[in-house]
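Q: Hi! First time doing this. I have a protein sequence and I read that you can turn it into a structure. Is that right? Here it is:
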Amino acid sequence: MTDLHIHHTRLTPQMRSVLQRMARAGRPHLHTLTPAQARAAYAAGADVLEVPRVELARVEDFSIRARDGHAMPARLYAPSLAAGLPVLLYLHGGGYAAGGLDTH
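A: Yes, that's right. Below is the predicted 3D structure, encoded as structure tokens:
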């Protein structure tokens, strides 16, 4: 990303700042890297949003078995220890090459 040609007037100042910092970093586009390089580059830049993390009552790592037996990592976040909380299932593909539990 070398310029902000996407409707920059419609972006919030915070998002415009994120895109400007990404452009100034001058890193290669992820699609030009090998999967291993893309994973490392994505993880290195994942904190660009600098969003403060909220303390939660429960954070639990576990795995979900796929049909082929592969154990997919998963993480449960809950704001309290109460039973019967609503659930949001978020699946991040990341091109199925980059990103993961700690970046999203």
